[in-house]
Design goal:
- The protein is mostly beta strands.
- The chain folds into 2 domains: about 130 residues, Immunoglobulin-like, CATH 2.60.40.10; about 160 residues, Glucose Permease (Domain IIA).
- It is built from 2 helices and 24 strands.
- The strands form 4 sheets. Strands 15, 16, 17, 18, 19, 20, 21, 22 and 23 form a 9-stranded antiparallel sheet that branches.
- The longest helix has 18 residues.
Length: about 300
């Protein structure tokens, strides 16, 4: 769930976009949030942290679970940031530290700080048992070396920092089709436990259009052993979206794309048993449920 936290009163807005649909519903309620009151979020969630500061603040930054958090100024003159909770984040309470620079009377810089308590709850992910051809699960050394190189390439990619917010407004689901509910699911392949599924699968037919979930810059186009033909888009401030198992790709690295722009078609490349889109999102290196971008909860 994507949540937006402010101070004192709250508004809940739930956005669900299915192939660029409009806002469906809005419900208002009142809360009493303070820096001492724990903010409850689930593993794999995204929430929006927004704070109102006095004039003269030039820079705000945060830190949560070891990751840097970039703040930007929104249309209401508040500083806000998207914060992601990794799908495997340990359960418990943690501190979200926010610091800012303020210009003093004589031009000196003073540092302000505020801490919020974040309580990480279980994501409630299930388990999926799969049976695949032996060669797709038990890899030879040459294939293992390839997988390792590709994994390192993705790790390096997610360390890329685009310090400009490239997205604007709501996010769009990139393909039409049923949501398979696969995010965070632990997989048992041919009787052996594997890493949890880090994206959400959308059951779309072969050749169906795949659209950019938001505006950004294409930072990777390639063909990978597990992911197949792939596109990764950077949306700035640590936010990336990924599109795997593609058929045709219509963009190239370094290209700017707009919200909803067609970037590829659905395929079944890589380790896939049938046509579908694997849609993934990384936020400040946290593996988060991309459908969190479709929901919105606010404390004002």
């Amino acid at each position: 769930m994507l949540r937006q936290w402010f101070i004192n009163k709250g508004v809940f807005q739930w956005f669900f976009w299915g192939s660029v649909f409009a806002l469906l519903t809005q419900i208002a309620f009142t809360v009493n949030a303070t820096p001492l009151q724990p903010i409850q979020v689930k593993q794999g969630d995204i929430f929006v942290m927004a704070i109102q500061l006095e004039e003269g603040i030039s820079f705000v930054q945060g830190r949560f679970l070891g990751n840097a958090i970039s703040f930007y100024k929104n249309s209401n003159d508040l500083f806000e940031a998207l914060v992601g909770v990794d799908l495997a984040a340990p359960l418990g309470t943690y501190s979200l530290e926010i610091e800012w620079d303020q210009k003093g009377v004589k031009g000196t810089t003073h540092l302000g700080k505020r801490d919020y308590v974040i309580e990480v709850k279980s994501g409630g992910f299930g388990t999926q048992t799969l049976t695949l051809p032996k060669k797709m699960v038990d890899l030879d050394q040459e294939t293992l070396d390839r997988v390792h190189r590709e994994s390192e390439r993705f790790k390096e990619l997610f360390r890329l920092r685009v310090e400009q917010k490239l997205w604007e407004g709501a996010f769009v689901i990139p393909a039409e089709g049923p949501r398979m509910g696969s995010f965070g699911v632990s997989r048992i392949m041919n009787g052996e436990a594997r890493n949890p599924h880090t994206g959400e699968d959308i059951g779309a037919p072969l050749g169906a259009p795949v659209r950019a979930t938001q505006s950004g810059t294409v930072v990777l186009v390639g063909d990978f052993y597990f992911n197949g033909r792939s596109v990764v888009i950077a949306h700035g401030l640590g936010l990336f979206s990924m599109y795997f198992h593609l058929k045709d790709i219509f963009v190239k690295e370094g290209q700017s794309v707009k919200w909803g722009e067609k970037v590829a078609t659905v395929g079944q490349s890589g380790r896939a048993t049938g046509p579908h889109l694997h849609w993934g999102v990384r936020l400040n290196d946290a593996r988060v449920n991309p459908f969190s971008l479709m929901e919105f909860k606010a404390l004002l």
